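Researcher: Checking consistency across runs. Here is Glutathione-dependent formaldehyde-activating enzyme again:
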Amino acid sequence: MLTGACLCGDVTFTVGASPQGPSVCHCGQCRRQSGHLWASAYVARSDLSISGKVKWYAASETAKRGFCPRCGSFLFWAADAEDTMSFALGALEEPTGLRLEKHIFVTDKGDYYDIADGVPQKG
């Protein structure tokens, strides 16, 4: 079982299943909201227990982003039509035992950095 929290500790979460798809997103929305990029994994919504108040932002017509209203930590991403939810890898207590599987939306990445870690890259 993995646990995580926002920067101030007002929002905590427990991951009750093996996380899937550990990845780094380089899309413009993730870069703008996080200040660089966003690393996450996902589980079924029923396997993610969240405590504390989460503020949800409708980032598009099909997905929302959850963050702590006190400290602003960006913790969750969920597509409206899916029964899974992504959570921030950086918010997890270590050790996580996880390894990145892919970089996504790399065509949108910032021009100020390179991806040179050997992890597969997708569009």
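Researcher: Does this match what you'd expect to see?
Model: One thing to look at in this run: The mean pLDDT is 96.
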